[in-house]
């Protein structure tokens, strides 16, 4: 057992380690913190700003440098800089504080943008602004989950926001053309799924223009196809029913 | 002095000769409100001692705190001169430039105005502005030179110096008046010239215009201010003295030195002393009011010129009005209060008052009867209470039946009663609370003719009302009480309440004769900001108010708590009604935008919104600025004006990665920017190219978006074989014309046949981008409605929608920052579907062997189809069936299912894949071209005097503005500068320019067009020269990139930015860092 000697210990306070396993060996490189993600996304183009040193290690914190034959065996070359680049792009890394912070912030924005795009104020039929949605998300203390897609989370956020403010998914405008025979029966079935029926025309065929919640679309689609055996048709008139243009108060 | 009774006022209202409607105008802080205070104190409404300190007419809290007036308010005063009694309707107006709209509303209602000048500061920018306004409204001004004491106390001028200083000021004022006069004469002359030119062919003998006569012929002596004419008063409102009468002037001119000396010696004494002496010796109210009464016109003296000006909207001349309307002019001139005269009232603004302050809700002294009644009630209640207490005791004591029954009965009745009273009480309480919450709007108006009575029915005429039109429709001699057909811009209403405006208070009136200023309640529903009221439908709406300042400061407001949105919207609506110079709008992005005249005005609007109208917390931000994305031709020269391609490229490390990033694998790019891409299932291949449209074409498309929209609607109905609603010939002609124009603008080799190949417009099917189809075997264009050919059935038809949708999506959000595209043409050069067809035919053969189990499986898959699927696939199936005619009926269904399987493989439905592929192809096609951002531009008109011209230019160039032209206004020393300015830079522009020029220049901003920002947002220095010139990063220069990154950041998109610019090097830190 070695004696614990704190004076000799050099703590790696500012090193981000990127590792990879190749040919049964572990390889590590020492990078600056908060820089690796920048390299991967292409924002940082100067490799010297990313790498602390272009040596490849077996263990960075112990300072064990990888052997040349191992490198050749694993990477097929002994050019340290090239290997560093490979490890940088493919290796696993620990995300540093600022990187994580910006990532989460970006996701938060992204979620808010998606929500603002999909939703309207049901009273005015106008979208909310992203800033307002962001504030509302902060009010309900929504925490971003980094491993779930932003779209999924946005749907979750909409559900939660409905409890605190007036918000609704923007309606989809659809047109069905149903054969007269099944029309009546089908209409009863569709009714609970439809929000507003805008027009109804019943002569040879039943034609309905209506607004629905986008969440119900799949259900309606399926219903119409199964019930009419492909004879009925469904057409999307607009994906989002929002007011267009500026409105002046008068 | 005694408070004048209401009855006396009402009595005086009946005599137009003794009425004076005046307003006080001046630059900010020249002492308008103080002067008003002095005048009010003469009527005993406030004490003499408080005059000048109280600022009685500044009733708002923020007005008192800031010490500036923010809204105009009126008060009626009584004045006796000799044995003649006068009623003076005094309107105090704000002097700050942000509130000049309030000045406009006040000036309109008056016949004369008092212009107040600071003796030290002299003529200031707002003085010029108010003089101009008074001039435009044709009202007669008198001058009050205020703060004379400052000359002595602060400047320590000798009497001789003071005299020359005052003379100087007078000359300045007269110079402005003279300039206004000359500019008008010149204008008239120019008008006459054009007129004579216009009618030169048909000149009548007697219609010879003497337009050679210029200034010398027109008499202007009555315009100028001079103590000789008695229209100037020298005063010190804070000390309450002033003089201006002729006899006193004589006295002063002769003994000026002496008097000033005496005053100086007295000044060592406390101010009260001076005040007491001077205000008794030379009372200001006496001086000012007597001047007002003698010099300013009464409502009777309204000039014909002014009446005509009021009655003619815009460019219409008085002669072109219908004869009935011209008749009304006489009524105006007569200003008669007879019952037969038609009532004409002009409402210049609506102002909100607290519901509680309305006279009907004021606590009144109780009459004897009421007191007696209440006493009775109280007594009864007391008695009941007594009985009740007895009743409670009784049942305990006496068990015998009779008595207890009795008490129970009384108890019951009493209980009922209590319930009732409590109910009614709570109800009244509730209503009171509700109403207390409400803001009540009162119209600030003046009667120009006739007598207004409470409960009278009257027409409300909007600004666009045309008397000629309605006179044809209405039976002659009808009144507002009759049942009338609805006429545009006209409504009927009942005047609910009439008020006498007394500064902070209101007094109820039964009727108001002509020539008076009044408040009208209950017009809230009918009048938005200003209107004309009349009993005669022949009355024209008055000319709109001249606003010196137009709203330019834009901000977006939002509630702090998102759930309070409805309150905000309601509050903004109320604010819009209460303020003549605010604009409120909801943008397409959902932002609520408030447009105000300046920062101070904005602050007031926000305070109003927070405390009165919405009563919620709000936050304010810069509004979102829209951009457009486009492409250009590749530039010939680089950023340092060197020819591209000749310079040596510097081998820069960071350029290495760039190009591979943009375009992924599987997409072929030709050298000239043709993108070829396949759908994920490899069944279809698209080749797309992007080209910039000529500027004129883009403009043409922008202008005709409505036309394109109708065209689109028509086409879609054509395609669906639906009720062919006939398009009318006029529109067809317009479409034809539009097409020809497009052809004219799209010439050259590149655009051969382009117009005939237009497939669609985008985004939203009517935008300024074009989709062309240049591949073989397809001829569907937007011009269907013109030739009305029957649609052809081609193999592409069924998927045509997907391509168009892909194009629409691509144009709606571009690759740079997801903003819409503009002026881009996408050309589909190839569309290969051969593989898809092969598959289909192969499937057809298999179809018969298909078994039922597979069917159900397929159905599951099919459920995941997107929107466009059903219509298309069904038609697809029909085609399949056409091919396999011989197959038995039973297999029909299975073949159908099989067809769908082809189209819905593991990548999702085929139509969806096409949409996505088309969209991606368009985006890549854009990315290989030089992309540019387009910024929205304002045109900006600035009026400035010569001395501040340089500073105007400095502010403009700092904000990336470009001056288009500069010219001098004829007859004045004002310059008019026209410039363009990016909307993105306009926030705070108006304020900055005002500050830098001390208010001598005021800009007006109007949205004009989109302009390409010349810089490439992705540009980095590549050549040696650029390197030298811009350095390695060059981010200081790149405006386009700044804009792009700001938008991307706002939208939560990825921004190419380093989190840390320079990495921290390793330091060995101590354990407890």
Structural description of this entry:
The complex is a heterodimer of chains A (250) and B (1073). Helix content of chain A is 38%, strand content 24%. Chain A is α+β, with helices and mostly antiparallel strands. Helices cover 40% and strands 19% of the residues of chain B. Chain B has an eight-stranded antiparallel β-sheet with strand order 12-11-17-8-9-16-13-14. In chain B, a hairpin with a 2-residue loop joins strand 29 and strand 30. The chains are: A alpha+beta (250), B alpha+beta (1073). Chains A and B meet through helix 1, helix 4, helix 5, helix 8 and strand 11 of A and strand 18, helix 16, strand 19, helix 26 and helix 32 of B. Strand 12 (247-248) of chain A pairs antiparallel with strand 19 (583-586) of chain B. Chain A: Associates with the 60S ribosomal subunit.
Features of the shown structure:
heterodimer; A: 250 residues; alpha+beta; 3-stranded antiparallel beta sheet; 8 helices; 38% helix; B: 1073 residues; 8-stranded antiparallel beta sheet; 7-stranded mixed beta sheet; 40% helix; cytoskeleton (chain A); nucleus (chain A); Ribosome maturation protein SBDS (chain A); microtubule binding (chain A)
């Amino acid at each position: 057992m070695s004696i614990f000697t704190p004076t000799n210990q050099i703590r790696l306070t500012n090193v981000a380690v990127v590792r990879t396993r190749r040919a049964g060996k572990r390889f590590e490189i020492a990078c600056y913190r908060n820089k690796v993600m920048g390299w991967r996304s292409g924002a940082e183009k100067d490799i010297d700003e990313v790498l602390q040193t272009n040596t490849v290690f077996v263990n960075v914190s112990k300072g064990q440098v990888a052997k040349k034959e191992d490198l050749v065996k694993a990477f097929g070359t002994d050019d340290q800089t090239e290997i560093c680049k490979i490890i940088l792009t493919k290796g696993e890394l620990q995300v540093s504080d600022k990187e994580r912070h910006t990532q989460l912030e970006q996701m938060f924005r992204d979620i808010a943008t998606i929500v603002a795009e999909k939703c309207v104020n049901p009273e005015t039929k106008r979208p909310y602004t992203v800033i307002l949605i962001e504030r509302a998300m902060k009010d309900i203390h929504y925490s971003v989950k980094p491993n779930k897609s932003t779209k999924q989370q946005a749907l979750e956020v909409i559900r939660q926001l409905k409890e605190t403010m007036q918000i609704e998914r923007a309606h989809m405008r659809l047109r069905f053309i149903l054969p007269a025979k099944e029309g009546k029966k089908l209409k009863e079935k569709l009714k609970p799924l439809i929000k507003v029926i805008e027009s109804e025309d019943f002569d040879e065929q039943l034609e309905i223009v209506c607004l629905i919640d986008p969440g119900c679309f799949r259900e309606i689609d399926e219903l119409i196809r199964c019930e009419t055996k492909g004879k009925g048709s469904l057409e999307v008139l607009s994906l989002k029913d929002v007011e267009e243009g500026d409105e002046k108060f008068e | 002095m005694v408070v004048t009774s209401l009855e006396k006022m009402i009595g005086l209202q009946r005599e137009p000769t003794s009425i004076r409607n005046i307003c006080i105008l001046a630059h900010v802080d020249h002492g308008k409100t103080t002067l008003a205070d002095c005048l009010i104190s003469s009527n005993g409404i406030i004490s003499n001692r408080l005059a000048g300190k109280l600022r009685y007419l500044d009733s708002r809290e923020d007005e008192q705190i800031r010490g500036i007036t923010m809204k105009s308010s009126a008060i009626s005063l009584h004045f006796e001169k000799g044995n003649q009694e006068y009623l003076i309707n005094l309107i105090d107006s704000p002097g700050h430039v942000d509130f000049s709209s309030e000045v406009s509303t006040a000036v309109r209602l008056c016949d004369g105005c008092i212009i107040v000048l600071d003796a030290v500061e002299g003529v200031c920018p707002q003085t010029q502005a108010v003089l101009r306004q008074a001039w435009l409204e044709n009202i007669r001004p008198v001058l009050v030179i205020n703060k004379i004491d400052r000359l002595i106390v602060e400047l320590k001028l000798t009497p001789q110096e003071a005299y020359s200083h005052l003379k100087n000021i007078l000359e300045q004022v007269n110079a402005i008046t003279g300039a206004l006069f000359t500019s008008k004469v010149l204008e008239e002359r120019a008008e006459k010239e054009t007129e004579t030119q216009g009618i030169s062919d048909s000149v009548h003998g007697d219609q010879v215009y003497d337009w050679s006569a210029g200034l010398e012929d027109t008499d202007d002596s009555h315009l100028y201010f001079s103590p000789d004419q008695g229209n100037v008063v020298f005063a010190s409102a804070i000390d309450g003295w002033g003089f201006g009468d002729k006899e006193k002037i004589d006295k002063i001119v002769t003994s000026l030195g002496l008097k000033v000396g005496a005053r100086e010696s007295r000044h060592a004494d406390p101010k009260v002393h001076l005040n007491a002496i001077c205000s008794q010796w030379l009372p200001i109210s006496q001086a000012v009011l007597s001047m007002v009464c003698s010099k300013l016109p009464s409502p009777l003296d309204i000039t014909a010129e002014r009446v005509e000006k009021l009655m003619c909207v815009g460019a219409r001349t008085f002669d072109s009005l219908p004869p009935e309307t011209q008749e009304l002019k006489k009524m105006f001139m007569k200003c008669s209060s007879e019952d037969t005269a038609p009532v004409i009232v002009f409402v210049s603004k609506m102002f909100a008052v607290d519901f509680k302050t309305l006279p009907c809700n004021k606590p009144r002294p109780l009459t004897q009867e009421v007191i007696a009644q209440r006493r009775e009630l109280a007594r009864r209640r007391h008695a009941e209470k007594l009985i009740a207490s007895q009743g409670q005791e009784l049942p305990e004591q006496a068990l015998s039946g009779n008595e207890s029954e009795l008490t129970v009965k009384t108890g019951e009745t009493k209980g009922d009663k209590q319930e009732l009273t409590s109910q009614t009480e709570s109800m009244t309480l509730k209503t009171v609370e509700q109403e207390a919450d409400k803001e009540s709007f009162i119209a600030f108006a003046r009667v120009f003719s006739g007598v207004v009575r409470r409960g009278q029915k009257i027409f409300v005429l909007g600004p666009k009302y045309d008397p000629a039109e309605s006179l044809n429709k209405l039976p002659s001699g009808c009144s507002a009480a009759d049942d009338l057909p609805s006429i545009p811009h006209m409504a009927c209403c009942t005047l609910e309440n009439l008020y006498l405006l007394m500064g902070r208070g209101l007094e109820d009136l039964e009727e108001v004769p002509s020539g008076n200023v009044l408040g009208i309640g209950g017009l809230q529903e009918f009048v938005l900001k200003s209107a004309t009221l009349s009993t005669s439908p022949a009355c024209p709406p008055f000319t709109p108010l001249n606003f010196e300042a137009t709203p330019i400061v834009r901000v977006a407001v939002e509630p702090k708590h998102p759930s309070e949105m409805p309150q905000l919207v309601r509050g903004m609506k109320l604010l819009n009604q209460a303020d003549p110079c605010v604009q409120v709008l909801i943008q397409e992005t959902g932002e609520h935008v408030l447009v105000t005249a300046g920062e101070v005005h904005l602050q007031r609007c926000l305070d109003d919104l927070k405390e009165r109208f919405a009563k919620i917390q709000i936050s304010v931000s810069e509004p979102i600025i829209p951009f457009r994305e486009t492409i250009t031709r590749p530039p010939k020269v680089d950023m340092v004006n060197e020819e591209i391609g000749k310079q040596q490229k510097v081998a820069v490390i960071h350029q290495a990665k760039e190009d591979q990033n943009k375009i992924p694998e599987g997409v072929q790019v030709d050298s000239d920017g043709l993108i070829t891409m396949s759908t994920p299932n490899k069944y279809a291949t698209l080749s797309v190219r992007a080209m910039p449209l000529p500027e004129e074409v883009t403009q043409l498309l922008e202008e005709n978006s409505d036309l394109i929209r109708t065209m689109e609607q028509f086409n879609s109905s054509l395609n669906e074989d639906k009720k062919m609603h006939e398009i009318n010939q006029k529109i067809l002609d317009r479409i034809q014309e539009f097409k020809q124009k497009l052809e004219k603008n799209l010439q050259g080799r590149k655009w051969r046949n382009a117009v005939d190949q237009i497939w669609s417009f985008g985004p939203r099917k009517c935008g300024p981008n074009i989709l062309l189809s240049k591949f073989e075997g397809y001829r569907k264009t937007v011009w269907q409605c013109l030739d009305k050919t029957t649609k052809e059935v081609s193999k592409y038809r069924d998927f045509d929608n997907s391509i168009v949708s892909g194009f629409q999506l691509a144009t709606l959000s571009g690759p740079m920052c997801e903003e819409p595209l503009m002026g881009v043409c996408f050309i589909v050069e190839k569309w290969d579907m051969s593989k898809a067809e092969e598959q289909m035919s192969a499937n057809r053969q298999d179809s018969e062997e298909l078994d039922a189990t597979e069917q159900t499986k397929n159905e599951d898959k099919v459920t995941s189809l997107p929107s466009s699927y059903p219509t298309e696939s069904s038609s697809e199936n029909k085609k399949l069936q056409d091919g396999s005619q011989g197959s038995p009926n039973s297999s029909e269904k299975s073949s159908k299912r099989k067809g769908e399987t082809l189209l819905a493989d593991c990548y999702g439905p085929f139509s969806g894949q096409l949409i996505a592929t088309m969209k991606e192809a368009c985006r890549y096609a854009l990315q290989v071209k030089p992309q540019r951002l387009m910024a929205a531009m304002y045109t900006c008109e600035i009026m400035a005097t010569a001395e501040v011209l340089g500073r105007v230019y400095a502010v403009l160039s700092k904000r990336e503005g470009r001056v288009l032209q500069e010219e001098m206004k004829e007859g004045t020393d004002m310059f008019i500068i026209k410039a363009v300015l990016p909307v993105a830079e306009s926030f705070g522009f108006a304020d900055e320019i005002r500050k830098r020029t001390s208010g001598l220049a005021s800009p007006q901003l109007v949205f004009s067009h989109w302009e390409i920002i010349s810089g490439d947002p992705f540009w980095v220095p590549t050549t040696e020269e650029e390197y030298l010139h811009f350095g390695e990063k060059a981010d200081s220069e790149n405006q386009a990139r700044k804009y792009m990154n700001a938008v991307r950041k706002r939208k939560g998109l990825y921004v190419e930015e380093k989190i840390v610019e320079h990495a921290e090097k390793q330091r060995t830190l101590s354990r407890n860092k």
